[in-house]
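Treating backbone geometry as a discrete language has practical consequences that deserve illustration. No coordinates are needed to read the tokens, only the vocabulary itself. For completeness, the protein is quoted in full, as a sequence line and a line of structure tokens:
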Amino acid sequence: MGLAARAGAVVPGTERVREAVRAGRVHYALVAADLTATGRDKLVPLLEGREVSYSVGYTRADLGRAVGRAPLAAVALTDEGFARRLEALLATGG
């Protein structure tokens, strides 16, 4: 995630992720497990409706730390290569 962030391929924060999903720029998203129910209700149906792969896990603090920022409720990857690699790593527990 840090490499993707340095490459400018990360969209941080719930609102920015929602905007990027609507614009068709997101290839994969991570949603914090401790995101509020309201936040989850706004983001997850949008991801599913636009058929964007996503994972729910980690804490807001973990997601923020992964990209060198303050706690974040959601993070999206806009680069398809980074997105595929992260999704594969998470699927194998890596």
